[in-house]
Design brief:
It contains 9 helices and 5 strands; from the N terminus they run βαβαααβαβαααβα. With 194 residues, the protein is α/β, with parallel strands linked by helices. A 5-stranded parallel β-sheet has the order 2-3-1-4-5. The two termini are 14 Å apart. The model has no long low-confidence stretch (mean pLDDT 95). The structure holds adenosine monophosphate (AMP). Adenosine monophosphate (AMP) binds next to helix 2 and helix 3.
């Protein structure tokens, strides 16, 4: 089962992905987490992406696609993958389709967390105060929202056209969002088993 959690930064994708890991044994593939890990390890890759990430821009497709490929290769027997923060551009979506097809798999479901931008800014301001992530500062966050709206949001139409998109209210409580996700996944799993 391959699920994409879709939505703007700070929509709650990471929180929901972590619940699915705990409850269903899926593997969370968060390119943001992978890039942050590369930075804290001090690797060459980490050094290359640091300034781009802090500014709120997207790092190159080539880099994130390679990170995802590596994880797919390392986990051939996974019960499922949750793609969190990936794909974010049309070439990334195409690379994911090709990569999964090469493994006899596909994207099974795409769940979009719909949120209100003003509420997101409020959420991120609090996160910035609590955690101090450089790219949560108001200027960088604005840039991340622009990147989402221009480069990522067009994928909604693509997945809708493929009949894979389910939309839920991301402003509801964490538990309400996770039970909506659970029922969408149960349906997708039942469809897959047919
Ligand atoms: P996130 O934690 O998913 O919001 O990602 C934090 C930052 O990492 C983003 O603002 C981008 O700079 C970079 N990043 C994460 N995932 C991707 C991706 N799929 N494509 C390009 N850049 C990404």
């Amino acid at each position: 089962m391959n699920l994409i959690l879709f939505g703007p930064p700070a929509a709650g994708k990471g929180t929901q992905a972590k619940k699915l890991v705990a409850e269903r044994g899926f593997i969370q593939l968060s390119t943001g987490d992978m890039l942050r890990a590369a930075r804290s390890s001090g690797s060459e890759l980490g050094k290359r992406v640091a300034a781009i990430m802090d500014s709120g821009s997207l790092v190159s497709d080539e880099i994130v696609i390679a990170l995802i490929e590596e994880q797919l290769d390392q986990n051939p027997k996974a019960a499922g993958f949750i793609f969190d923060g990936f794909p974010r551009t049309t070439p990334q979506a195409k690379a994911l389709d090709d990569s999964l097809a090469g493994r006899g798999q596909m994207v099974d479901a795409v769940i979009r967390l719909k949120v209100d931008e003003a509420a997101l800014i409020d959420r991120v301001t609090k996160r910035f105060e609590a955690e101090g992530r450089a790219d949560d500062n108001p200027e960088a966050f604005k840039k991340r929202l622009i990147a989402y709206n221009t480069q990522t949001a067009p994928l909604v139409e693509v997945y809708m056209g493929q009949g894979k998109l389910a939309e839920i209210d991301g402003m509801a409580s964490v538990d309400t969002v996770s039970s909506s996700i659970a029922s969408i996944l149960d349906n997708a799993q039942a469809k897959k088993a047919k």
